[in-house]
Design a protein that fits this description.
The chain is an alpha+beta fold and 303 residues long. 24% of the residues lie in helices and 26% in strands.
Length: 303
């Protein structure tokens, strides 16, 4: 269900009017913000791991997806939140050629230097090879190998200036903001997202093979009318938007709209709690107990 469909459902219930505002009108813009507030509510509800937010690196299409010989640092997807299990290296047929167990970063200090493992860290330096200069919004590199994955990251020049990468041109050309003049200097590009570290350095027989791992992602926010949500029941968003609109208008229907939204949210939680690998169903252990009597009952324990 895309945002246009959600907004239509919301507006018909809110105004009882089929004359839906265009995307250029204020009500549409406000609706987009209300919808994203609802997505945020769903994504962070009760510390849930929603089934819809599990994906894989190869499925998502973001981040670094192939191994390079001796390279140990790889970008994670922009929507990455958490990973567990194994990083797998796959051949062209999808067969696993190597695995790296995923550990917590602090555990690396206790591992052997040749032990295979992977971990994820956030906000680390990503690239600093060669030198760069900036003229207006154009950055020109010398000895650099820029990639499209760097868009959105931040330049930090040795001379003190900073800039955000807005577009990729080539291995030696990037567009940044703000416009400024920076003479040729050393620099670093800082990744504001997540980076994966592999140990040991991949051997040449893995070069060019696919990287894959299961991870939990950030919920997608609406940016355009055709943006879609991963949510199982998008009508939660409709009811939540209604509640937010009624609250802003001090309309007493706020209470019923909020109740409708919370009921939809609780139903999604109930369905989700039927079990997944991050939140498996829990069955009470009744082994050793007697029907109708606690297993800790002193009478049965002492006989």
């Amino acid at each position: 269900m895309d945002f246009n469909a959600i907004f239509n459902a919301f507006y018909v219930q809110y105004r009882a009017d089929s004359d839906i505002p265009a995307s250029t009108e204020d009500e549409y813009t406000v609706g987009l913000e209300l919808a994203n507030e609802a997505v945020n509510r769903w994504a962070h509800y009760d510390a849930m791991y929603w089934r819809e937010l599990f994906t894989t690196l190869q499925t998502d299409g973001g981040g670094a997806q192939t191994i390079s010989t001796a390279i140990t640092t790889y970008l994670a997807p922009g929507n990455f939140k958490e990973a567990g299990g194994f990083v797998k290296v796959l051949d062209s047929s999808g067969n696993t050629k190597s695995t790296f167990p995923i550990i917590e970063p602090q555990e690396a200090q206790f591992k052997d230097t040749e032990a295979p493992y992977a971990y994820f860290i956030k906000g680390q330096d990503y690239y600093s090879t060669g030198t760069v200069s900036q003229s207006t919004t154009a950055v020109t590199g010398s000895g650099t190998t820029f990639t499209s994955a760097m868009v959105g990251m931040q330049f930090q020049y040795a001379s003190g200036e900073v800039a955000t990468i807005t577009a990729y041109g080539s291995a030696t050309e990037l567009t940044v903001s703000p416009s400024q003049t920076v003479a040729s200097t050393a620099y670093r590009i800082v990744n504001k997202g997540w980076t994966m570290k592999l140990n040991p350095s991949p051997k040449s027989d893995l070069n060019g093979l696919d990287i894959d791992y299961v991870y939990y992602k950030e919920a997608s926010l609406f940016t355009t009318g055709t943006s879609r949500t991963e949510m199982a029941d998008p009508y939660f968003i409709v009811h939540r938007m209604l509640a937010s609109q009624y609250r802003a208008a001090r309309n007493p229907y706020y209470v019923s709209a909020k109740a409708d939204a919370e009921n939809a949210l609780k139903q999604m939680k109930m369905d989700n709690d039927s079990g997944n690998w991050a939140s498996p169903p829990v069955i009470t252990d009744t082994s050793g107990s007697v029907f109708g009597v606690s297993s800790g009952n002193s009478f049965f324990r002492n006989r």
